[in-house]
Amino acid sequence: MRMSVEERFRIVRSIGEECIQEDELWNLLTKKPHPICYDGFEPSGRMHIAQGIMKTINVNKLTSAGCKLHQTVGRYLIEVWKAAGMNLEGGNVEFLWSSEEIMSRPHEYWPIVTDIARRNKLPRITRCCQIMGRKEQDELTGGQIFYPCMQCADIFFLKADICQLGMDQRKVNVLAREYCDDIKRKNKPIILSHHMLPGLLEGQEKMAKSNPNSAIFMEDEEAVVNLKIQNTYCPPNFVDRNPCLEYIKYIVLPWFKEFKVEQKTKNGEKTYTSFDEISADYVKGDLQPADIKPALAKALNRILQPVRDHFKNDETAKALFQAVKGFEAAKLPNHISNEQDKRSLLMENPIEKEVESLFLKAEDESASSNSSNAQMSVEERFRIVRSIGEECIQEEELLNLLTKKPQPICYDGFEPSGRMHIAQGVMKTINVNKLTSAGCKVKIWIADWFAQLNNKMGGDLNKIQVVGRYLIEIWKATGMNLENVEFIWSSEEINSRAHEYWPIVMDIARRNKLPRIMRCCQIMGRTDQDELTAAQIFYPCMQCADIFFLKADICQLGMDQRKVNVLAREYCDDTKRKNKPIILSHHMLPGLLQGQEKMSKSDPNSAIFMEDEEADVNSKIKKSYCPPNIVDGNPCLEYLKYVVFPWFNEFKVERKAENGGEKTFTTFEELVSDYEKGDLHPADLKPALSKALNRILQPVRDHFKNDENAKALLKRVKVCTFLY
């Protein structure tokens, strides 16, 4: 007989101590015959009775009301539920391994995770961290910021209509509903939060797997159950937070529909069929702890006996149980097996086998490289490569690398986030050409996904990729030698090799406390903690992972990226990886105006941009800060040192004869000497600097005026950057 909507609603609603929202649940059951319910857990050890029996009761209720269940699981725990009587027939319960599902559909999963992270400030995410039993922010790891974002994403990834989880998961489920508001999604997941059983001992708000006396576990023997219940906190006449009465209310009565007490007093045996009846007798004192405890122990042992029998008599179950006991006894947090879900490893156990195998593979490839640059000595190669960095960590490692590896891999990257200033355009071209001339292979990581995390271009990945193609076009026009240069789009590469990438990211996140990761957040220009989004915690972990994912030997990035590159070297120490990435941090050009430590795309007067017209360059240089006789902090001299001299190997100043006449400087030191003495004045230097910069930029302007594809691309970029 078909069940009415009213009856289905009554059954489903009975599961939740709280329902958000009842009217939405009613509407869902009216319109959808088989709603999808989501439940999940970390396979992290023993199963207590709430997870075993209460989940079985709830799942059986849901399937009886026509719901379909998606659960993320571990093999031993599935075996427990089968033995406990969970109704798995008819295909209405589906066990899904998060590691398999995520790895098979990374292009669906991770964009949801990162979008949730991008839209939520760090304080909002940390409020969800009680789902992992963590509250103190400074004690949180980066992995514990990933966790709520991932759990929230699970709901949408599994297309869940109902979230059927404990009250302790309420905050992250509410986050999912808030996310629906943010993205204008009409159908919000309905939250059914079930009751959380307290621990058995006085003052224990919840059961803890770390304390075996706090709960009845599904594999507890009869004598163990009897002893635990005998020692359980059970104050006479008090019902609230009385663990014995809670076990009766939420386990025994739903299971047997009755609770039988054999009293030693004159009342004799009595069978209760409702909790209200038990509660009334207990408050009056007609029912004592000495009566309840043996009856409760007996009832629990009746429930658990089929589970015990299954794990004693079934050979497969027996072997599985022995394996789980082995994990517990040996306390091997580093062990990874198919029986464990990768999500639990994110919080407690390293993903070391995956990560280690990737590192070993990278080191093997490093050793077997056979590309050659026989014409140039190691010393000359070292001189060229080292000249790029304002700082090198460490020089002896760089020399050793160039001695042993003919074609080292250099990593550089950028966010396609708008206009390209001259440092990004010309200085990068100079550095890349130096590296390739010294036999290096340069991998330029187009961090389109990172730009989305950092909310550039309004988080629109299509617009971000348009800007990325535009920047590549600029480098081509500037004269970057692309023979040994590979442009790699982060979104494409990460999705195609998700099984390699995300284990590294999560391992880095798991191993580093939140304050350590936050010290890297200046790479995104963010420092105010409360203003950081969760995505901006993801960002350093991902950028650090990029280095290993791309098998980089050398990180060739700006001084502003130094902290995250040092994090990568620290991670090598932590994982016992021998070959650390060498850090070559190049100089950061200051802004053109007084007091500007760095160029800013948001202030067009702070820098020369690659598409600036000749008149724009002339005007900006004329207005730039250039104090006479002072070299330090002088942006005009910095442009000469890091752009003009490396490009032309000289700098020509045209002056009237009475002002010293025309002079060509072939070294920066020679120019500095004249400038400090006053023999070279800003009024002479600035026009000559403008002329040199315009000579460098002219081929870029010509390319975007004459090449139809480039012209169309620039037009699209102007629309994107104008909007954002």
Task: Name the beta content range.
Answer: 5-15%
Number of strands: 16
Which parts are unreliable, with pLDDT below 50 for 5 consecutive residues or more? Answer: 331-351, 365-372
Question: Level of helix content?
Answer: 40-55%
Report the end-to-end length measured between terminal Cα atoms: 59 Å
Structural class of the helix and strand makeup?
Answer: alpha/beta
Q: Largest beta sheet: what is the strand line-up?
A: 1-6-5-2-3-4
CATH superfamily membership of the largest domain:
HUPs
Q: What summary fits the major beta sheet?
A: 6 strands, mixed
Shape: elongated
The count of helical stretches stands at: 31
Rounded mean pLDDT is 87
CATH fold field value of the largest domain: Rossmann fold
CA-atom Rg in angstroms: 33 Å
Descriptive labels:
single chain; 724 residues; alpha/beta; Rossmann fold; Tyrosyl-Transfer RNA Synthetase; 4 domains; six-stranded mixed β-sheet; 31 helices; elongated
Q: What does this protein structure show overall?
A:
The strands form 4 sheets. A 6-stranded mixed β-sheet has the order 1-6-5-2-3-4, sandwiched between helices. A 6-stranded mixed β-sheet has the order 9-14-13-10-11-12, with helices on both faces. It folds into 4 domains: 5-194, Rossmann fold (3-Layer(aba) Sandwich), CATH 3.40.50.620; 212-309, Tyrosyl-Transfer RNA Synthetase, CATH 1.10.240; 352-586, Rossmann fold; 604-723, Orthogonal Bundle (Tyrosyl-Transfer RNA Synthetase), CATH 1.10.240. A hairpin with a 6-residue loop joins strand 7 and strand 8. It starts with a helix and ends with a helix. It contains 31 helices and 16 strands. The protein is an alpha/beta fold and 724 residues long. Mean pLDDT is 87; it is low at 331-351 and 365-372. Helix 22 (490-496) crosses helix 23 (498-511). It is an enzyme of class 6 (ligase). Belongs to the class-I aminoacyl-tRNA synthetase family. Catalyzes the attachment of tyrosine to tRNA(Tyr) in a two-step reaction: tyrosine is first activated by ATP to form Tyr-AMP and then transferred to the acceptor end of tRNA(Tyr). Its EC number is 6.1.1.1. This is tyrosine--tRNA ligase.
